[in-house]
Amino acid sequence: MPRPIEAVIHVDALAHNLRRVRAATPDARVWAVVKADAYGHGIERAFAGLRGADGFALLDLTEAERLRALDWRGPVLLLEGAFEPRDLELCSRLDLWHVVHCAQQIDWLAAHKTQSPHRVFLKMNSGMNRLGFRPEAFRSAWVRLNALPQVGEVSLMTHFSDADGARGVDHQMAAFDAATHDLTGERSVSNSAATLRHGAALRSDWVRAGIVAYGSAPDFPDHDTAHWQLRPAMTLRTRLIAVQHLAKGDTVGYGSAFTAPAPMRIGIAACGYADGYPRHAGTGTPVLVEGTRTGTVGRVSMDMLAVDLTPVPQADTGSEVTLWGEGAAGSRLPIDEVARAAGTIGYELMCALAPRVHVRVAE
Question: Which secondary structure element, helix H or strand E, spans residue 8, and what is its range?
Answer without folding.
Answer: strand 6-9
